[in-house]
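Check these lines:
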Amino acid sequence: MPNTRKSIFKTGLFILLVSGISIIVAFSIEDTHQSVGSSNFKSALSDTLFYPRIDSVESVIHHLYYDFVYDEQHEQAKWVFYKLYPSYIVKSFERKNDFRSDPSVASGSADHSDYRGSGFDRGHLMPAADMVWSEKALSESFYYSNMSPQHPSFNRGIWKRLESRVRKWLSQADSLYIITGPKLNMRLNTIGHNEVSVPEYYYKVILKFHQNNTDGIAFLMPNQSSKSDLKDYVITIDALEENLDIDFFHNMNDSLQSSIERTSDHSKWSWK
């Protein structure tokens, strides 16, 4: 091949390669804001950017619509990460309450017998009501790896109110990225033959993406009945990190992470 043609060929190949890389990067970024109407392709790369810091002994378990770290000592998830988009609000399927052990937990998850007769609800960490747009997503939400022992008055009360509020925020956002879980320690009471820990507190951290803005809010709630306002349980993400010893959103650039985690501006969130 003549030098000129070689040069043109190499230049063309380089442009194609660069274009290909650009397409891959753009697709990865776009996936973080996709809707149900798109391909529903799950980008593990983009998701990991929003995970809490993972210890060397921990591993992330992936389901199609949520990811989590399972704590074997407590027989429940340490945290659950999932994404919501406005199109998820559409209810297409009814819940079937198909509670079952999670085969993806190699050591074995909790099961029916752990909760039977305990007096505690099988409280969802990722709410089933957030997944009614997909039969698969709804079914996955009933794995015991997504359950934690909650007092009935808490699960059916203020925790449910918070879940409903999050869905209302979804109608005002391009997407919500959520991390939720129990506060775990070695002093907790347990239930069942698998000794499932009964948490005293639960948390929820929400990132809201809307146009070019990113806002964050966090909640820490006691596992008990409450008629208090949801705003009474708002806590800065920084304070929650210190309380739980979990580092949220550590992959964000420092300035954005600081602006989101150090403040809790109620005015950026609708409460009606």
